[in-house]
Amino acid sequence: MTSKIRQALETIHPISENDWSIIEPLFVKKEYLRNEFILRRGEIEKYLYFIESGILRSYVDRNESEVTLEFSFQETIFCSYSSFLTQTQSQVDVQAITDLTIWRIGFDDLQKVYLETSIGNLIGRVACEIQYLEKSNRELSLLTKTAEERYLDLFKEQPALIQNIPLKYIASYIGITPQALSRIRKRIS
């Protein structure tokens, strides 16, 4: 499976065999069961994850309700970035929505990749730029699109996988109640 990690990283830039021989052994496989927490609010994010299979979500508790901030799907990279980058307490919870298989690299090991490979800094910078653009697009979507448009966008991005996400999480992600989401789903079906 580390070949999938390499393929994902090589969408940014080709990796030499020498660099890959440094990077590959630093990733460790871990499995989580559905509803298991990967990170709890108040903990420090120590890992960057590559999702082999499954879906996870990050969320915050607000006034006794959960607000989903992000879904992450297979063959993507994820972590609680602000906690990871600053090595401070996370403000979010990260939970497996389905059974989840991930490959993770620790903070210190990632620093080793940056120092010891010719490609590490470039890949790290571009990955951060991609994350920034995704967050900016999400922010703009919340400010400029209707709930129905946000739902259709999510459905278009991950049509097969979205069926595995409970509707209450989808509703909180697009900023509406589960009842309002039910009305949207009836209207568009």
UniProtKB/TrEMBL annotation:
Pfam families: cNMP_binding. SUPFAM superfamilies: cAMP-binding domain-like (SSF51206). Residues 30-118 form the Cyclic nucleotide-binding domain. Gene3D superfamilies: Jelly Rolls. It comes from the Bacteria. This is Crp/Fnr family transcriptional regulator. It comes from Splendidivirga corallicola.
